Amino acid sequence: MTTLEKMNNTQLQQYLSSLSHSYEEVQAQKLKLDMSRGKPCPEQLDLSAGLMNCLSGADYKAANGTDCRNYGGLDGIPETKELLAWFLEVRPEEVIVGGNSSLTMMYDLIAKAMLHKIPGSQAPWSKLPQVKFLCPSPGYDRHFAICENLGIEMITINYQSDGPDMDEVEKLVATDPAIKGIWCVPKYSNPTGITYSDAVVKRLAAMPTKATDFRIFWDNAYTVHHLTDTRAPLLNILEACRQAGNPDRVFEFTSTSKISFPGAGIAMLASSEANVNWLKKQINIQTIGPDKLNQLRHVRFFKDQAGIENHMRKHAAILKPKFDLVLEILESKLGDKNLASWSKPQGGYFISLDTLPGCAQKVVAKAAAAGVMLTPAGATFPYGKDPEDKNIRISPSFPPLSELQQAMELLTLCIELVSAEQELAKRGL
Amino acid sequence: MTTLEKMNNTQLQQYLSSLSHSYEEVQAQKLKLDMSRGKPCPEQLDLSAGLMNCLSGADYKAANGTDCRNYGGLDGIPETKELLAWFLEVRPEEVIVGGNSSLTMMYDLIAKAMLHKIPGSQAPWSKLPQVKFLCPSPGYDRHFAICENLGIEMITINYQSDGPDMDEVEKLVATDPAIKGIWCVPKYSNPTGITYSDAVVKRLAAMPTKATDFRIFWDNAYTVHHLTDTRAPLLNILEACRQAGNPDRVFEFTSTSKISFPGAGIAMLASSEANVNWLKKQINIQTIGPDKLNQLRHVRFFKDQAGIENHMRKHAAILKPKFDLVLEILESKLGDKNLASWSKPQGGYFISLDTLPGCAQKVVAKAAAAGVMLTPAGATFPYGKDPEDKNIRISPSFPPLSELQQAMELLTLCIELVSAEQELAKRGL
To answer: Which candidate, A362, A413, B130, B294, has a CA 20 to 30 Å from the CA of B391?
Structure first.
C-alpha cells in the first residue's frame, strides 16, 4: 500500500496542494537541465586529453609497418585489436575494428542482412514476408529504432533479475522462423543495470531456433564500465555458442565511446570466423578502411589493458558520486512511500526507475515543464510504448552534482505529484 | 597501320625475339612494384604532418560551443562545412559531413534507397523487379562494385571527350523506368581524366527521365586536384538541376582523402535540402554522429580556402613530375607505333591507356609476371569486363620516380610484346 492510499481524502488533497506549491516554486527557478542521454560529462572527457595530440607528424606507422595515414586495412591494425580484444575475451581473427560508432556497425550489419544472405540464411531478410526481433525491455531505444526503421517487428520480452525471461525466449524462437534476432545489453544493461547470469548466457547459446539464421546482437557496451571494485562477471558468449554447437549465432559489439571520446572513439565487432569473413567481404564494398590513425592514437594513449583499467577507475571516481547522489535522493524522498522502485547498478550509465503504473509519461512531462529534460517515457520499450507507462531512464553522468541534485529533487517531486493526482482521480475527487 | 603491321614475317619474328629477350632480362631483376591503386605517396602524406597534433587537450570546441569530443552533430560542425563547401559551391544547409570515406556515403545512400523510398520513389528499390544504373566507362571500379553487390544491373555508356555519350543517356533514361541512377566522376575523371563540359552538365540536369526517383551520383573526388595552373571549369550541378526544375536529381560527393589523409580524411555529401533532410532522418538511426574532432583538426590545419589551395599546389609539385615521366616514357617508347593511345590529364590521379583491342588482359598479366602489379584489366568497366579488352588504368602517384620508370618501361615493353604476339597469331605464324 502506498503512503497516498493510507491518507484520507482531506489529507490527500492537502498533500497534493503542498506538492503543487513546491512544484510552482521549482518552476519559478526556470531550470534548464538535460538528463536525456547517457553522455559522459566534460570532466570524464578531460581524462583523455592526452589522446588529442599523442601522435606526431613522424608517428604514423603501425608495428607491422602499415602507414596508418593511407588507404587500406579493413579490419583494424593488430595492436588496436589487441588493445581492445581482451575486454571481449576474443581472438584477433574474430574481430573487426570499425569507425567511431558501434551503433553504426549494428545498423550496417542488419541492413546488410536485409539485402544479402548472412551465413545460414535462406534469403535476404527484406525478401521475407516478415522479420521479427526479440526485444528484452526496458532496453536501449536506439536498438529499437533500428528495427523500426528497417521494418522489423519487435516482440517485447520481460527482463528478470538475471536477464531476459528465457522460458518465453526459448518458446518463441523454437517455433517461429520469422524471429531472426534478439537484442541484448548483457552487462550493466541499459537501463536496468543487470548483468546476465551464466545460466541465461548458456540458454541463449544453446536454445534450438526455428530460423537457421537466428543471431544474438550482443551489445557489450559497458563491459569495463564498473562503478565499484565489485566487477560483475559475464560468461563469454562466443565461447558459450561454440561449446553449444552454434558458433555463428552471435555478433558482439563494443566501443571506446564511454572510455575515450563518445564522438571520436573506436568501435569493434566480434564474431565467429565464418561471420567475420562474410562481413569483411561485404564491408570491402562499403569502405577502403576505417580511420587507422585514430586506432593508433588509442594504442599510444592507453598502451595496454592496465592502461584502460586504470583509466576506467578514473571514470568511476567521477561517476560514482553522481550515482550515489541519485540513489540517496530517491531513497530519502521516496524510500518509504511505495510510489516507485529503482535499480542500484554496479556499473554502466543508467538508473532505471519504475513509477506506479500509468504515471511515467505525466512525470516526464511535468519535469520538462519545469525545465528538466529526461529520456522520453516509453523510449525504453519497442515503438516507444511502455505497456504499463511506468519506466523512466535516469542518466546521471552528464550534469554536475549541483544540477543533478536539483533535477532529482524535481523528479521525485513530480513522481509524488503525479501519483497523488492519480490517487485523487481514482477516488473520483 | 601499326609499326608491326608494316613488318614482314621475318622482321616481326626477329622483333618479337628481341622483345622476349628484353622481357626475360626485366624478369631477372625480380621487381616488386605496385601501381594498382590511386594511393598518394608518403611524401604527399607528409604534407599534412601538422594535422597529426594540431589539436590539444584544451582545444576541442567548435566555434558554436559544441564539445567535439562528445556525442551529437549529425551533419558536421559549421566551420568544417564552410571549409569544404566552397569546392562544391554549395550552401551549408545542402551539406552532410560524414566519416572518413565518401565511398561509404555512396554505398550507404544506395543501400538506404534499396530499403526505403527516397524522395520521389514509388517503392524501395529492393522491392522492384529490376534496378539499373548507367555506368559511363571506363570508370571507377568501386562504383561498379557497389552496383554489383546490391544487384543493380549496370549499363555501360561510352565516354566522349566531354563526358558520357548524352544521346545514348537521354534515350535510355527517357524510356526505361528501371534506370534509377548514373555514376559520374565529372572532373579529372577516374580514369580518363576528362572534365564534363557545360553542355553535358546541362543535359544531365534537364533530361526527362521515366523514373520519378532517378538520381545522378556525382562523385566530385578530384575537384581541387589540379596538376597544372590551368584549372578545368565544371558547372555547378546542383545549380544546373535547380535551374532545370529538377532540384532533387543529384547527390554530390567529395572528400579530403587525397587532400589530407586517405585513411583519416573527411567525406562530404551535398544535395537539395529535401534530399538532405530525408537523409539526415535516415542517418539519425545509423549513428550518433561522425568524428567531430577530426573535422576540427582539418579546420585548424587548413584554416581556409587559401590554405587548401596552397596545399594542393604542394601535392601537384610532387605528382606532376610523376605524370610527366609516365607520359614521356609512353611517348618515347610507343609514340610512333600506333600500338596504344593514352590520356594527358590536367588533374586527378590516373592516366588511361588503351592498347590494341584484345591485349589489355595479357599485358597486365605479363607485367604481373615480371613483378609489376597494375589495376586488373577490365576493372574500369561494369562487371570487370572491358568489351574490347584494351583499357589499362595507370596510377602514377604512389611509386617513387625511379620505380615508376622501371614499371613504365616494363609496361611499354609488355604492350609491344603482346601486340607483336597478336600480330604473329593473326598471320597464322
So the answer is: B130
